[in-house]
Automatic annotation (TrEMBL):
Pfam family, one: ABC_tran
Protein name, UniProt field: Simple sugar transport system ATP-binding protein
Membrane disposition: Peripheral membrane protein
GO MF, any single term: ATP hydrolysis activity
Species of the source: Microlunatus parietis
Span of domain ABC transporter: 13-246, 262-506
Keyword ATP-binding: yes
């Protein structure tokens, strides 16, 4: 770890012992932070560590319970984002704050109107000026709904810059981007830094932190636990985040692939607004393998998973489980047929927060033997099951009678997985299985998913985390706008996967990546030859 000198008095943005409570939970515990111009300051920590809460206090979305904020040595009280923006603070939110049916220029001018008449000509000129200055390349007359996600994020950045922001907060900005869009964002952030902007980059992704940070502050459970140098290894950064050494590698043997257990043929799902979100999709998952479905969020992965378990209706197509069609079955009957499901939103769909640990562990079988006989529950057997699962899955709880709502995110996810794996499965569908989970719990969850594969289950994982996909997958299917654009091997490069996530078919993506790689090799060779040449261009060897 490294220590960093404080900025000169009156220079930059300073958070002094900021404390924020939500009831008995202390989300920020006397956090002090210095944010200075021409620097990218990464706030690294697990989901729930308090990073976003701290920035929401700074941006005026939340009010602190203690501490103070200074801008250039002057106390700042921002009771709302408008006051924060007036002080030069801008925020690029993880979930975009854009009006889809408006153009870029119209979105830029919202909230900045000087009269009843909108000066769209001035807004267009401002978009072009800022786009050119920072290499953002955004069309002022394009409708937001027609723009790729990466360009929409550029619009969010333009909105902050249009307000003369000197301090820019990026809250988990790469969550919805392809690898190529992430690289482009990093280039933009460096450009902003070089222009003298102060950048705060909130993330839990170690690869990105090491690529871009000038300074790293690590937050754990609401407290600053130290600062780290960007040259630190990912393993060291993970240890700082969690408080103990963790393995970032997934240990698994080659799969022993069996027959097809789930076959999807021509599946179509239509959203309530009439949009086709899964479009004539066909896919098969085999026993003894992990099939990862990758893609940028919002391309139909969530709707596909919900349709497979039966909580979203199929508008067309069939789903065959172990040779039998299940598309007409209720979710409960699909579960009885051998389908396991870890939902994307565990708090909404995965458990009942007010129920106990023991009760949640039998939610899908509480009315069957051995947990029930007739109308009577076998409470002793329910408690015995809970004790076994808590031990097996290392669920950290004070008591099996404790409500699940009181558990940490990682322990809640362990509980959901423990319940699904407590019975023989043909297919396990796990949607975003490690979202909002600390690195230590991720290590455990990955091990259990691999173990389930090795039992002969077909494991389907829907994930937007490319590192997770690469670590777990035996095959990778990439989704784009409701369709599978290709199925590739797990050692496929991030460049190829990124192109596929942007809609490029697998064979074209591989060809494009090969051309790029060849060009890079040529550039390296040219540089080496130039180094070997003398002042007159002659080879000096």
């Amino acid at each position: 770890m490294t220590s960093t000198a404080a900025p000169e008095p009156g220079h930059g943005l300073r958070l002094i012992e900021i404390t924020k409570r939500f009831g008995s939970l202390v989300a920020n515990d006397a956090i002090s932070l210095d944010i200075v111009p021409s620097e990218i300051h990464c706030l690294l920590g697990e989901n729930g560590a308090g990073k976003s809460t701290l920035m929401n206090v700074l941006y005026g979305l939340l009010q602190p319970d203690g501490g103070s904020i200074e801008v250039d040595g002057v106390p700042l009280v921002s009771r709302n984002p408008k006051q924060a923006m007036a002080a030069g603070i801008g925020m690029v939110h993880q979930h975009f704050m854009l009006v889809d049916v408006f153009t870029v220029a119209e979105n830029l001018i919202l909230g900045r109107e000087r009269s009843a008449l909108l000066d769209l000509k001035r807004a267009r000129r401002l978009v072009r000026e800022l786009s050119g200055r920072y290499g953002l390349d955004v069309d002022p007359d394009a409708k937001v709904e027609d723009l790729p996600v990466g360009i929409q994020q550029r619009v969010e950045i333009l909105k902050a810059l249009a307000n003369d922001a000197r301090f820019l907060i990026f809250d988990e900005p790469t969550a919805v981007l392809t690898p190529q869009e992430t690289d482009e964002l990093i280039t933009v952030m460096r450009s902003l830094r070089d222009e003298g902007k102060a950048i705060v980059f909130i993330t839990h992704k170690l690869r990105e932190v090491r690529a871009i940070a000038d300074k790293i502050t690590v937050i754990r459970r609401g407290k600053v636990v130290g600062q780290a140098d960007p040259s630190e290894s990912e393993a060291k950064l993970a240890e700082l985040m969690v408080g103990r050494a963790v393995s970032l590698q997934v240990a698994k043997e080659e799969p022993e692939v069996g027959p097809e257990r789930l076959v999807i043929d021509g599946a179509t799902v239509v959203a309530p607004n009439g949009t086709v979100v899964v479009d004539d999709l066909s896919l098969a998952a085999r026993g003894g393998e992990i099939l990862c479905i990758a893609g940028v969020q919002g391309n139909g992965q969530s709707e596909l998973a919900e349709a497979l378990i039966g909580v979203a209706p199929l508008a067309g197509g069939t789903v065959i489980l172990d040779g039998k069609p299940i598309q007409q079955l209720s979710p409960r009957r699909r579960i009885d047929a051998g389908l396991g499901y870890v939902p994307e939103d565990r708090q909404h769909d995965g458990f009942v927060g007010t129920f106990s640990v023991a009760e949640n562990l039998v939610l899908n079988s509480f009315d069957e033997p051995p947990y029930a006989k007739g109308l009577s529950l076998n409470l002793k057997r329910i408690d015995q099951n809970a004790a076994e699962r808590v031990g097996e899955f290392d669920i950290r709880t004070q008591s099996i009678k404790e409500s699940v709502a009181s558990l940490s995110g990682g322990n809640q996810q362990k509980l959901v997985l423990a319940r699904e794996l407590s019975r023989p499965l043909s297919v396990l569908i796990a949607s975003q299985p490690t979202r909002g989970v600390d690195v230590g719990a991720i290590e455990f969850l990955h091990q259990r998913l691999v173990a389930e594969r090795d039992r002969g289950t077909a494991v389907i994982i829907v994930s937007s985390e490319l590192d997770e996909v690469a670590a777990l997958a035996d095959r990778i299917a990439v989704m784009y706008r409701g369709r599978i654009v290709g199925i590739v091997e797990p050692d496929t490069s991030r460049e190829v996967l990124g192109l596929m996530m942007a809609g490029v078919p697998a064979d074209e993506a591989m060809a494009s990546a090969s051309v790029i790689s060849a060009s890079e090799e040529d550039a390296i060779l040219d540089a080496q030859l130039a180094d070997q040449a003398g002042p007159d261009g002659e080879d000096q060897r």
